Amino acid sequence: MLEEAGFKPGVRYFQVTKCLYGLRESGLEFYKELRRVLELGGWIASEIDPCVFVKENTQGEKEYVATFVDDLLILARDESKKELMELLRNRFEEVKYEEEAKSYLGYNLEYKNTEQGLEIKVNQYGFAKNYCEEHGISAGKPGCVPMQPEMLEKADKDTSRADQKEFASVIGALMHLCKSRLDIMTATAYLSQHQKEPSETHLSMARGIWEYVAGTLELGLTFRNTNREEMIGYCDASWHSHESAHGHTGFYLAFGQNGTPFYAASKKQTMIALSSAEAEIMAMFACVRYVMFIRQLMEDMGHTFTGPTIVYEDNKPAIFMTGQYHATQHSRHMDRRYKWINEMVRSGNIKFEFTPTTEQKADGLTKPMVGKQFLTARNYLLGTEVTLSGVRGGVTDGTEYEWPSVGHPPDREGTQQGQDFQEGKF
């Protein structure tokens, strides 16, 4: 009978009575038990993200617990934290508690009180430093940037082949670091698409990103008091920026126009756009998806939205098309899923507003930059206030360096239809 059920004769089988690390089901089983314990204390799991728990205290304030397996991050009053710790210690054998979290899941957390309020800096200093030391990576020369745009064309012509596993390892480490270092996200995104057959130039460029990181280990996301400003987004696209003629999407979400991004994305578009406006609509679709996710998550956390989320875009034809009830001769060929943007606009969840390209803060997520343009984009993405003579890649002793005023290359030329869209000709 056992053999019919798939068991092999002469092999011992054991029934596990506790969750053990390494077993496939362990994480889920632990979460189920943790959730049961938290619900006993009145904590309610979010329907959008079940790893976020919400509770209202006696003063009517919302309190939160974020979980990652057995690591919890608590945002609550002292009385609620004490009750929660008693609840956890009654069920689990060993519970460690840190009053002021200095790190969480490998992220360093630094706190600073300023005249404007509390300032929190998040970085991955330990991970970046250890990686550079283990692989013998030193800081690049003064004024270095994550990627020189002209190196992309050189890499495309390079027929040599680098070690695929080594390249994938380097890119994987960079992608992990991108969570707090948005300034290297674009360069990493451009290189990550070559993991199947990387050239020696691609590998050299990946190491060049780490040299830039080695000279800017202290950088990270700096969050400041934004006086309860609403969530906003900046969305941009680079048309035909890849050798395959695909465009590149870049966007980020923040609280207030001067807020530091809490989410950002930089990725190659999956379809070839026929115009710059079409490329922008693809980017807007990707941005709106995450906006709607965050809106629903914030509603689960007790926030009430009084109006649409503003997303800043620098292409007027694209904004015009998102407000149309019908397809035009320039948009009727587009995939149906992009019509969902129109629905979100008409329902009052999203509102696109025009911003000049010179003030488009997501521009640094669509293409590699150098010089002052890169420094400006980095300040937007990290929430830093570094001046032109401040700390930068490859400079660790405060030495001043004169940044060259070099612009980034424009998007590659496309069809006449695309030029008409840029000029606003319908």
Task: Describe what this molecule looks like in 3D.
- With 426 residues, this protein is an alpha+beta fold.
- Helix content is 34%, strand content 17%.
- It has helices spanning 26-40, 78-91, 125-134, 150-157, 164-177, 185-192, 200-214, 276-300, 316-322, 339-346, 371-382, 416-422, and strands at 44-45, 52-56, 62-68, 71-75, 103-104, 107-114, 117-123, 221-223, 231-238, 248-255, 263-268, 309-313, 350-354.
- The protein has a 5-stranded mixed beta sheet with strand order 11-10-9-12-13. The chain has a 4-stranded antiparallel beta sheet with strand order 1-2-3-4, covered by helices on one side. Strands 5-6-7-8 form a 4-stranded antiparallel beta sheet, with no helix packed on it.
- Helix 8 (276-300) crosses helix 9 (316-322).
- The protein is globular, with a radius of gyration of 25 Å.
- The model is unreliable at 387-426 (pLDDT under 50).
Topology:
Elements: H1 26-40, E1 44-45, E2 52-56, E3 62-68, E4 71-75, H2 78-91, E5 103-104, E6 107-114, E7 117-123, H3 125-134, H4 150-157, H5 164-177, H6 185-192, H7 200-214, E8 221-223, E9 231-238, E10 248-255, E11 263-268, H8 276-300, E12 309-313, H9 316-322, H10 339-346, E13 350-354, H11 371-382, H12 416-422
Helix pairs in contact: 1-2, 4-7, 5-6, 5-7, 8-9
Comma- or semicolon-separated keywords:
4-stranded antiparallel beta sheet, alpha+beta, 17% strand, 5-stranded mixed beta sheet, disordered C terminus, 426 residues
